[in-house]
Amino acid sequence: MSNNYETTVKTQGARGGTVSSDDGRLNLNLSVPKAIGGDDGPGTNPEQLFAAGYGACFQGALGLVARQQGLKLPEDTTVTATVGMAKDDVSFSLNAKLVGHFPGMDHAQAQALMEQTLEVCPYSRATKGNMVTTVSVE
Prior knowledge:
By secondary structure, this protein is an alpha+beta fold.
């Protein structure tokens, strides 16, 4: 498979370290949340980064699905991604909740778009069968 795009990010120091991209655009400190035994320092964490990526990717795929159906999404459409970490038999597992906000759009139509996008979004496809992901409309 030939990639249309790829990026490289180096991690140093695990959850309490740093992450930086090869192009210099990403350079962040990491901190471990108190809820999983950390000091809750000022840095971000992998779950926040995953939620940001998932939400952005999902919203992009949402636009694609809407266009394929001849629909125009409201300009102020948003997707809020919540990523959770739960203890399981091995260590921890991730789960995600994606909530769409579609001002002025019919609720049932918006929910159908969210569900259809779950089948198209690259993050959803990559995690399908590996983590529980739910979609809803506020």
